[in-house]
Amino acid sequence: MSDPIPLNLARLRRTCAECSLQMLCLPAGVDAEDLGRLDTVVQRRKPLAKGESLYRTGDPLRAVFVASEGSFKTVVVNPAGEEHVLGFHLPGELFGLDAIGSGQHRCEAVALSDSRVCELPFSQLATIAAKLPSLQQQLLRVIGQSADRDHDHVDVLSRRQASERIALFLHGLSERYRRIGRPCDDFQLPMSRDEIARYLGLVLETVSRGFSRLHEDGVIEVRGRRVRIVDETALCLAANGGSDGASPQPRKRDRA
Asked: Considering the entire predicted model, what is its pTM?
């Protein structure tokens, strides 16, 4: 991994006070003095190119991370060389928490596109958080959100029907975009269909067919990686197998 750039140079580009993601990372009402104290800890890394690793399996815990630009995937590779995707991380979402228990990362974080991250050295962060109760509460909140995403992944994998897994994935991604203040009904997928398949425990062809079926049923509109949710109710029902007792009745598209 490349060394973080010196903090004084980073500050010429952007500080926490100027960051558009500030309210996702920091508690509401944090005062200027506390913000300045945190700003002395946060380090901004040089840009990572698409496919570049931020950390690898076995690396020691040095920091936790927030993507300020771009997105990341966390993966493990089995002895046969097959990659399994554990999660996707959008701007403003804290990641790197897998190393907190053992002190070593149990997976690899890879940039899905050209990206930048804020790096929060863990030892210094813990010290400052102990002095700033509001920051400590915020850290617990985002750690809880990370645990929720892990639970959501287990929920996805427990679904027997591939169609449910795909619909649940899109519905969950939409909610995450809503949370970070991005359009939640019309967005660009940062990951490929193959990466989605590795996350959902499916094969690429099944994911492609699932997207096409949702498109044909009028639930979503797909153009390459761009997804527009046309019928949010039908998507929610498809994600839950019509759990309200009624089968979803999506609008079929007219065929030319």
From this structure: 0.78
